[in-house]
Design a protein that fits this description.
Blueprint: E1 5-12, H1 14-22, E2 37-38, H2 44-59, E3 62-70, H3 71-74, E4 80-81, E5 88-89, E6 92-93, H4 97-102, E7 104-114
Antiparallel strand pairs: 1-3, 2-6, 3-7, 4-5
């Protein structure tokens, strides 16, 4: 029987997106030393806002990806409200990212581009 999954979104810049592409769209790259947390978000609108308003400003381009993770695995990460009612994200410690990647279901999908 298939395990239940949860759809997540990730706004990203060009460098991270290239590393995801090199993984065959199967994994998130390790965090940089100044990035102790991986932040997937729970809705597309919030991901679009970050990609469009933040990534474009600082990276010249912003992208939105969509992916699925086993729901039971995600139970260890409480949903964090980072602002308004729909500004919801998970905080995955960098040292747990390999395990997080192991619970991805299917490929990471590229869904939006902003310049």
């Amino acid at each position: 029987m298939d395990k239940p999954t949860t759809e997540l979104w990730r706004p990203t810049g060009p460098a991270e997106l290239e590393l995801v592409r090199r993984s065959g769209w199967r994994a998130w790259p390790p965090r940089l030393p100044d990035q102790p947390i991986f932040y997937p978000v729970l809705n597309e609108d919030y991901a679009v806002k970050i990609a469009r308003d933040w990534n474009v400003r600082f990276d010249g381009a912003g992208y939105v990806t969509r992916f699925r993770v086993e729901t039971a695995f995600l139970d260890r990460y409480p949903v964090r409200q980072a602002g308004g009612e729909t500004i919801l994200e998970l905080w995955v410690p960098a040292e747990e990212l390999d395990e997080f990647n192991a619970h991805l279901v299917g490929k990471i999908e590229f869904v939006h581009e902003f310049r």
